[in-house]
Amino acid sequence: MQTLQEKNKAVVKRFNEAFIVNGDLQAFAEVVAPDFINHTGPVGNNDANATRDFIIKLLRPAFPDIQLDIFDMIAEDDKVVTYKSFTGTFSAPLLGQEPTGKKATLRIIDIVQLKDEKYIAHWSVRDLITTK
Protein backbone atom coordinates (compact mmCIF):
# COMPACT_ATOMS: atom_id res chain seq x y z
CA MET A 1 0.00 0.00 0.00
CA GLN A 2 1.34 3.43 -0.98
CA THR A 3 1.84 6.13 1.61
CA LEU A 4 0.33 9.58 1.10
CA GLN A 5 3.79 10.88 0.21
CA GLU A 6 4.31 8.18 -2.44
CA LYS A 7 0.89 8.91 -3.96
CA ASN A 8 1.61 12.65 -4.02
CA LYS A 9 5.00 12.10 -5.68
CA ALA A 10 3.31 9.96 -8.35
CA VAL A 11 0.79 12.76 -9.03
CA VAL A 12 3.57 15.33 -9.39
CA LYS A 13 5.53 13.03 -11.70
CA ARG A 14 2.40 12.47 -13.82
CA PHE A 15 1.75 16.22 -14.07
CA ASN A 16 5.29 16.83 -15.30
CA GLU A 17 5.47 13.91 -17.73
CA ALA A 18 1.93 13.71 -19.05
CA PHE A 19 0.97 17.38 -19.09
CA ILE A 20 4.12 19.47 -19.35
CA VAL A 21 6.16 17.19 -21.59
CA ASN A 22 3.35 15.53 -23.59
CA GLY A 23 0.69 18.28 -23.50
CA ASP A 24 -2.04 15.95 -22.18
CA LEU A 25 -4.86 18.33 -21.18
CA GLN A 26 -6.86 15.46 -19.68
CA ALA A 27 -4.02 14.80 -17.23
CA PHE A 28 -4.05 18.48 -16.28
CA ALA A 29 -7.81 18.39 -15.66
CA GLU A 30 -7.49 15.25 -13.53
CA VAL A 31 -4.56 16.50 -11.43
CA VAL A 32 -5.26 20.21 -10.82
CA ALA A 33 -8.04 21.27 -8.45
CA PRO A 34 -10.47 23.95 -9.67
CA ASP A 35 -9.46 26.29 -6.82
CA PHE A 36 -5.70 25.82 -7.44
CA ILE A 37 -3.47 28.85 -6.75
CA ASN A 38 -0.04 29.36 -8.32
CA HIS A 39 1.72 31.58 -5.79
CA THR A 40 4.54 32.18 -8.30
CA GLY A 41 2.13 33.47 -10.95
CA PRO A 42 1.20 37.13 -11.25
CA VAL A 43 -1.53 38.30 -8.87
CA GLY A 44 -4.88 38.06 -10.61
CA ASN A 45 -3.45 35.63 -13.15
CA ASN A 46 -2.47 32.74 -10.87
CA ASP A 47 -5.31 30.25 -11.14
CA ALA A 48 -5.46 26.85 -12.81
CA ASN A 49 -6.35 28.30 -16.23
CA ALA A 50 -3.43 30.74 -16.18
CA THR A 51 -1.06 27.95 -15.18
CA ARG A 52 -2.37 25.70 -17.96
CA ASP A 53 -2.05 28.52 -20.49
CA PHE A 54 1.51 29.38 -19.40
CA ILE A 55 2.61 25.82 -20.03
CA ILE A 56 0.67 25.29 -23.28
CA LYS A 57 1.13 28.75 -24.83
CA LEU A 58 4.58 29.77 -23.54
CA LEU A 59 6.69 26.94 -22.11
CA ARG A 60 5.96 24.25 -24.71
CA PRO A 61 6.42 26.62 -27.71
CA ALA A 62 9.66 27.89 -26.15
CA PHE A 63 10.89 24.27 -25.97
CA PRO A 64 9.08 22.35 -28.74
CA ASP A 65 11.42 19.37 -28.17
CA ILE A 66 11.13 19.62 -24.38
CA GLN A 67 12.87 17.03 -22.25
CA LEU A 68 12.41 16.57 -18.50
CA ASP A 69 14.98 15.55 -15.92
CA ILE A 70 13.80 15.10 -12.34
CA PHE A 71 16.90 15.16 -10.14
CA ASP A 72 15.19 14.92 -6.76
CA MET A 73 11.71 14.71 -5.30
CA ILE A 74 11.00 15.01 -1.59
CA ALA A 75 7.56 14.58 -0.02
CA GLU A 76 6.45 15.52 3.45
CA ASP A 77 2.89 15.78 4.72
CA ASP A 78 0.84 17.33 1.89
CA LYS A 79 3.76 18.89 -0.04
CA VAL A 80 6.17 17.64 -2.70
CA VAL A 81 9.39 19.47 -3.52
CA THR A 82 10.94 18.74 -6.91
CA TYR A 83 14.30 19.78 -8.30
CA LYS A 84 14.10 19.38 -12.07
CA SER A 85 15.02 20.84 -15.40
CA PHE A 86 13.44 21.20 -18.80
CA THR A 87 15.81 21.28 -21.75
CA GLY A 88 15.15 21.92 -25.41
CA THR A 89 15.73 24.16 -28.36
CA PHE A 90 14.90 27.70 -27.22
CA SER A 91 12.44 28.63 -29.99
CA ALA A 92 10.07 31.29 -28.60
CA PRO A 93 10.25 34.06 -25.95
CA LEU A 94 10.09 32.88 -22.36
CA LEU A 95 10.43 34.64 -19.00
CA GLY A 96 11.60 37.87 -20.59
CA GLN A 97 14.29 36.27 -22.73
CA GLU A 98 14.37 36.11 -26.50
CA PRO A 99 14.89 32.74 -28.21
CA THR A 100 18.34 31.75 -29.41
CA GLY A 101 17.49 28.73 -31.54
CA LYS A 102 20.02 26.82 -29.41
CA LYS A 103 19.67 24.38 -26.54
CA ALA A 104 18.61 25.98 -23.27
CA THR A 105 17.75 24.68 -19.84
CA LEU A 106 15.10 25.86 -17.41
CA ARG A 107 16.05 24.70 -13.91
CA ILE A 108 13.23 24.71 -11.37
CA ILE A 109 12.65 24.00 -7.72
CA ASP A 110 8.91 23.46 -7.21
CA ILE A 111 6.82 23.11 -4.10
CA VAL A 112 3.41 21.61 -4.77
CA GLN A 113 0.71 21.27 -2.13
CA LEU A 114 -1.81 18.49 -2.76
CA LYS A 115 -5.16 17.46 -1.33
CA ASP A 116 -6.93 14.27 -2.38
CA GLU A 117 -4.24 13.69 -5.04
CA LYS A 118 -4.84 17.07 -6.69
CA TYR A 119 -2.67 20.18 -6.94
CA ILE A 120 -4.08 22.93 -4.73
CA ALA A 121 -1.07 25.28 -4.51
CA HIS A 122 2.31 25.83 -6.16
CA TRP A 123 5.48 27.85 -5.54
CA SER A 124 8.66 27.79 -7.63
CA VAL A 125 12.09 29.26 -8.23
CA ARG A 126 13.17 29.21 -11.88
CA ASP A 127 16.48 29.80 -13.61
CA LEU A 128 16.57 29.97 -17.40
CA ILE A 129 20.04 29.20 -18.76
CA THR A 130 20.43 30.05 -22.40
CA THR A 131 23.23 29.50 -24.86
CA LYS A 132 23.93 32.47 -27.09
Summary keywords:
Ester cyclase; 132 residues; Nuclear Transport Factor 2, Chain: A; five-stranded mixed beta sheet; single chain; Cyclase_SnoaL-like; NTF2-like_dom_sf; alpha+beta
Describe what this molecule looks like in 3D.
The mean pLDDT is 95. The protein has helices at 4-21, 25-31, 48-62, and strands at 32-38, 67-76, 79-89, 103-115, 118-130. It has a 5-stranded mixed beta sheet with strand order 1-5-4-3-2. Helix 1 packs antiparallel against helix 2. It has a single domain (4-130), classed as Nuclear Transport Factor 2, Chain: A. The protein is α+β, with helices and mostly antiparallel strands.
**Shape designation:** globular
Kindly report the spatial arrangement of strands forming the biggest sheet.
1-5-4-3-2
CATH class: Alpha Beta
End-to-end Cα distance: 49 Å
Query: What is the architecture at the second tier of CATH?
Result: Roll
- The structural domain count equals 1
- Mean of all residue-level pLDDT scores: 95
Following the backbone from N to C, one meets helices and strands in this order, namely HHEHEEEE
Number of helices: 3
Beta strands, count: 5
How do the helices and strands line up, and which of them pair or pack?
Elements: H1 4-21, H2 25-31, E1 32-38, H3 48-62, E2 67-76, E3 79-89, E4 103-115, E5 118-130
Parallel strand pairs: 1-5
Antiparallel strand pairs: 2-3, 3-4, 4-5
Helix pairs in contact: 1-2
